[in-house]
Sequence to fold (124 residues):
Amino acid sequence: MQEAGAEQRRAPRFSARIRVLYFSKGQPRAVDADCQNISAEGVFVKTRRRGPDTGTPVSMILSFDGSDKEIMVEGIVRWQGEVQALDDGSEAAGMGIQFTDMDSAIRDTLEQKLADLPPEANHS
Fold:
């Protein structure tokens, strides 16, 4: 199934070290997470536990490594991964978030940041 999702992507993905602070309505506080990959259309966020349900709107602050400028973006959870046990006894999960309602200045800043990132390796 992942291959079908990869074929549907409209924008190239980039590997990146990006800190993601996300929050959604009804969430008591923001959650600090990491980005696994990002594109102009969305981001995959690694989490320690299950995140908001698919279809949930979220707000995110993206902090790129080596930059003191943060980008605030809105999105919607489009995909929710299953929680998996890790070797160290902890758990990991993740979710795909599609960007929504991005004004042109934020989009320009995001595209400038993406231009400096290495493309994600093709796993097919």
